[in-house]
Amino acid sequence: MPWARAQLVTERGLYDGFFVASRNDKRDQYAVMSEPFFNIDWLFIVNRESGLSPDNPKFLKGIFAANRGTARNAWLKNQYDNGIISHEVVTTTDAMRALMMLALGRVDIVLENSTNLDAVFQQTSYTSSDFQSFVAKSVPMGVYFNKDFLNRHPDFLNKFNAGIKECKK
Questions:
Q1: Nearest to 150 by CA among 22, 6, 2, 10
Q2: I need a surface site. Which of 14, 121, 148, 161 has the fewest CB within 10 A?
Q3: Which residues does residue 60 pair with via DSSP β-bridges, in sequence order?
Q4: Global pTM?
Q5: Low-confidence ranges of the chain (pLDDT < 70)
Q6: Minimal CA–CA distance to 44: which of 64, 30, 19?
Q7: 109 and 44 Cβ atoms separated by less than 8 Å
Q8: What is the rounded CA–CA span in Å between residue 109 and residue 102?
Q9: How many Cβ atoms from other residues are within 10 Å of residue 132's Cβ?
């Protein structure tokens, strides 16, 4: 099922949980996140020859892009709303489109996660040598369990989290 629908039906109490997700205040209202399984790195991606990096004063004046409906897009829009970045965020449909726009010079910086970036490299002629990336933030990812489910099974989350910790060893 599409991820957005899994989140919605969990919020409505029809499902016990959904994964993989990062923590946010909206989800925390109706569900509890497990011990994280892993972290996903959010990467600022620029054309290698651009000379842009987070240390460059021109960086925050660049045109940023991220995929519609992602936490990355919402985070960038918040950065714009708070005056941290100068231009409205360009919203793209997927990682491949964002990288194409970057390669064509239509945007200066793409915010993407490392998993999606690797997938684009496997599906296109683009390679990591075409771009330079910088870690913007590292985001813990886990399972969200509906609070009603957890109330019905009070020992579940502690046991689940203990299992995750054991597996991570």
A1: 10
A2: 14
A3: none
A4: 0.80
A5: none
A6: 64
A7: yes
A8: 7
A9: 17
